[in-house]
Amino acid sequence: MPLYKHYFDMNCTTNTANGLAYHHATSPASWLNGQPDWMDSDVVFGSPRNDCEGTGICRISGFNSIQSTKKTCRKTRGLARFDASSNSIIIQFRRTMMCPRLYANHFYTGRFHMSDPCWLGKDLCRKINQTSVCMMPGTYAVQEKDGWIRVVIPVTTM
What we know:
The protein has helices spanning 100-106, 122-127, and strands spanning 12-15, 21-24, 36-47, 53-62, 75-83, 88-94, 111-114, 118-119, 133-135, 138-145, 148-157. The chain is mainly beta. Strands 1, 2, 3, 4, 5, 6, 7, 8, 9, 10 and 11 form an 11-stranded antiparallel beta sheet that branches. The longest helix is centred in the middle third of the chain and has 7 residues, at 100-106. Mean pLDDT is 77; it is low at 1-34.
């Protein structure tokens, strides 16, 4: 079941041929209202360079495309959307679906730190009509509202 179905009443859901959920949100939540094209995603936290240890995003792909990780408390579901106007990826997580330790390690301070770049999975790249998308290392503001955590990460596209 798509992540948003647990929390909102959506009017339109379209599943793509590659299995990614593609949503046109008309929910009462202000972060989703009027924002089309949210994709259910699996996110594994940590550094890609350090076997998913440390801070940042190690892998992000379409929902159910990442096999279980050996690391406990490293993976969660989220909603991702490419914003071409700001050349960024917006990722939102439901806090209640996140391990408390994951929240404490990555979001508690109000800043999300990525020490290494992270490439989006090919399934998400196809969905947004890009050959490759790289989320840039840096420290980004964490926004929390109505039980959601939101991070906007600049990207380079090819």
